[in-house]
Amino acid sequence: MSSRLSSHVHENQSPDLTKDLKQDGCVQIAIPPRPHEPESMQADPVDYMARAQWLRAVVLGANDGLVSVASLMVGVGAVGQSAKAMLVSGLAGLVAGACSMAIGEFVSVYAQYDIEVAERERRRRDCGSEKEGVKEEEGSLPNPLLAAAASALAFSLGAVLPLLAGAFIRSGGVRVGVVCAVSSLGLAGFGAAGAVLGGANVPNSVLRLLIGGWLAMLVTYGVLRVSGIVFGMHVSSA
């Protein structure tokens, strides 16, 4: 054959996909264009598991601070009408609780730090001279000091709410009610924020924190009230 027949495949962007053209001995075959991926599939999904650790620490710290100090103030209010006594007890609870949270978080995260360091050293020894077989894990080691500071700060932020709520109320009964109401709003806010950031169910999260906080304040108030009646305890500003 004197002439050669060569074929070329081109991507046709026109709507007519069945038209074949013959030009200079070349056959052009029209094929459909490749579909583009939708933007929703190209976007990276939110990694909620990566948020779990720090989100748990923040929500847990703030919730502990609010419930602990509010329950302490409500308990003191059950055996006395002194505003100073309630505020002093709340402030003492804030300082003691923040220190306790910081120390506990420091010890816990430092234990995790030691375990991860020991595991990396063990892998290096097992690897020996064959470095290609073991790949160093990416990501930084946990910081115990940073975790302790964050936990203490979260506790303090939660504890400030009942302190501010009871600082400007003169009547003892009204003060206890205001502390409970403000604490309930704070618990609902913490629960909703944690659920939104963690991709969880908002009503369930809010309800769990509210029930837990109400039980803590109710039990503390009841125990102190009964103890005050039975043992004749009374807290005054004198």
UniProtKB/TrEMBL annotation:
Molecular function terms, GO-annotated: iron ion sequestering activity; iron ion transmembrane transporter activity; manganese ion transmembrane transporter activity
InterPro entries reported in the protein's UniProt record: Ccc1_fam
Tagged with keyword Electron transport: no
Keyword terms, alphabetized: Ion transport, Iron, Iron transport, Membrane, Transmembrane, Transmembrane helix, Transport, Vacuole
GO biological process: intracellular manganese ion homeostasis
Recorded topology in the membrane: Multi-pass membrane protein
Domain of life (superkingdom): Eukaryota
Transmembrane segments: 54-79, 91-113, 145-169, 176-200, 206-224
One Pfam family this sequence matches: VIT1
Main subcellular location of this protein, as a coarse class: membrane
GO cellular component terms given for this protein: vacuolar membrane
Location in the cell: Vacuole membrane
Reaction(s) catalysed by this chain's protein: Fe(2+)(in) = Fe(2+)(out)
Keyword Ion transport: yes
Family affiliation: Belongs to the CCC1 family.
Described function: Vacuolar Fe(2+) uptake transporter.
Protein name: Vacuolar iron transporter
Organism in which the protein naturally occurs: Musa balbisiana (Banana)
Lineage: Eukaryota, Viridiplantae, Streptophyta, Embryophyta, Tracheophyta
